[in-house]
Design goal:
Layout: H1 2-27, H2 37-52, H3 72-83, H4 90-115, H5 120-132, H6 134-140, H7 146-166, H8 173-185
């Protein structure tokens, strides 16, 4: 009985994440795709990566290289384009990437809170509140990079706190641990292979 009681916060977290995924999957639709500018750009550049391997905006004349947004989220979307490449049926699957990123954010939020000393119940409740926020649900039902960025950031923070607990950190450790987060939100102008 004591083992079940100690695992109860994890069971609550699993139920919260499961409910988030079920409700999110039921709400995925093609209805509001394109309402934001960024979701269309993410989808087009993901399709370009899948079809040509180049990071271009194929919906514009001359198909210019994309230099404003990072390539990480469109690369995730490119996998969806390879698997289910029929448009407009792909829209729901593209949105599912954001939904799965949201589930990862919830799990990593719980883990990060536990790493910094929060109790299992506090971490599970905070993850549940994050799952219930309207903004989280809205972002999970759109082709936007915010939840992928959040997952990357939470993962890097968890690595950072885990590393700092084991060994003294040096100044050059932060860029190495934070690289995925930085490149999820910043444009590719630092990556010379995207320039011609």
């Amino acid at each position: 009985m004591g083992m079940l009681k100690s695992r109860l916060p994890l069971i609550v977290l699993a139920g919260t994440v499961g409910l988030f995924l079920v409700v999110g999957a039921m709400s995925l639709s093609t209805a509001d795709f394109g309402a934001n500018h960024d979701d269309g750009i993410n989808a087009v550049t993901g399709r370009s990566l899948a079809a040509t391997g180049e990071y271009r905006i194929t919906s514009l004349p001359g198909e210019p290289f994309q230099r404003k947004y990072s390539v990480v989220f469109p690369a995730m979307l490119a996998v969806v384009w390879w698997i289910a490449g029929d448009f407009p049926g792909t829209i729901v699957w593209l949105k599912a990437v954001s939904l799965l990123s949201g589930a990862v954010v919830l799990c990593l939020t719980n883990g990060l809170l536990r790493t910094v000393g929060a109790s299992g119940w506090v971490a599970a409740v905070i993850a549940g509140v994050c799952a219930a926020l309207p903004a989280t649900g809205t972002l999970a039902n759109d082709v936007m990079s915010q939840l992928a960025y959040g997952a990357s950031r939470r993962g890097c923070c968890g690595c950072w706190s885990g590393l700092s607990a084991r060994t003294p950190l040096r100044a050059w450790d932060l860029p190495r641990v934070g690289w995925p987060t930085w490149h999820t939100r910043r444009g590719p102008w630092g990556w010379p292979w995207f320039w011609r």
